[in-house]
Task: structure prediction
Amino acid sequence: MPKQDYLQRSDADFAAQLQTVKTNLPAYATALGVTPAQVAAQAADAEYFGYTLACQQTMQNGGQEWTAWKNLVRGGGTAPVAGAPVAPTFPASVPAVAVGIEVRFRALVKQLKASANYNAALGEALGIEGPVQTAPDLAAMQPSIKVELRGGQVFVDWGWAGQAQFLDACEMQVDRGQGYALLAMDTTPGYTDTQPLPATPTKWTYRAIYRVGDDRVGQWSAPVSIMVG
Result:
């Protein structure tokens, strides 16, 4: 089954992920071919990113307090018993590292996963295995399409609805007044119909359905029409 990206997107979750690797990597470093210098560098990255995040949070909290105080000073109101905010206390500093912690982390994970000794269970222990994506109900899949004229041609706007990893192609058909006929089997969202426009106004109607391998899956899209010519 396809998996989502292992990298945690939020700063707090990414900081926790760095800490998980820092804690567990030393036990697997030799088996995975990671040098002591790499282990130390990753640990330094984890510590500094955590420190940076903590400083940011301290500044944000302090900013909110001083903004509220400024508003009271200017506009009046009931002041807190403690009075004006005090200067924030920052966490203990740690050695700085070069910028680009995520870039280095991705490179390290790529190296780990390329090791002959790597496996999914080990990756789970390190926190670098993405969650398995549950396959959608293919029988319920239905493309959503739009059509518009672009430069004298009809452009059919379609997409994967976030399920590209489970689908192979989008079959499109067009009815130019004589019933539906195959327009294209497209694998890249967005398609330009290169049929020359007629000399007189005519209605063209389009529809689409997803495909997996040689089979159609799901439902036809709602038909969408456009006047051309």
About this structure: The chain has a mean pLDDT of 94.
